[in-house]
């Protein structure tokens, strides 16, 4: 089903275009070597990923601060592995992670081709809850920054997706009407339901183990987006 009358396409960044899991793993490998953290990286990531996911949910709901997220996800991961790390070490790793993360530039399969194709017809934009100091660096280093006319971050908007105010801010910046806009993202609540409630069309990018029954169009690969646009 192709969407008609669309002029603006809004994307989430992490896990939608930018391969967060792969780039994050590479950053941790480098940091652990630097800090001489003797933990198997695969063991660490197996523990860290669900903890990090939970902290981002808390952050999105304003239940923890940015600083709490950066420290807490590492502290809980090390504690789960029974690895003793002092606060100084944890804070150093947290700082290094923000510095190293954008140095890796892997994109999800098909991202460049899809963006190149869509940019010929539509105006492209980013709406992200990610930290403002790293999101633009991620896009620049991965070669996708020039595809986008606007970037709206949660820190700029003062609220996080799915709050309607961030979508209102993004539409104002892009001079877009919600009924002529579509949002693509990997988080059903933050990206899809949030955008839909504000009047945008929404397409859910799910992984094979996330497929769910809902009223929104679902894709599992970015190239499938071209069936709608």
UniProtKB/TrEMBL annotation:
SUPFAM superfamilies given in the database record:
HAD-like
Please give the superkingdom of this protein's source: Bacteria
MF terms (GO), sorted A to Z: 5'-nucleotidase activity
Q: What InterPro entries does the annotation carry? A: HAD-like_sf (IPR036412), HAD-SF_hydro_IA (IPR006439), HAD-SF_hydro_IA_YjjG/PynA (IPR011951), HAD_sf (IPR023214), PGP-like_dom2 (IPR023198), Pyrimidine_5'-ntase_YjjG (IPR052550)
Q: Name one Pfam family in it.
A: Hydrolase
Spell out the protein name for this chain.
Answer: YjjG family noncanonical pyrimidine nucleotidase
What is the scientific name of the source organism?
Answer: Christiangramia crocea
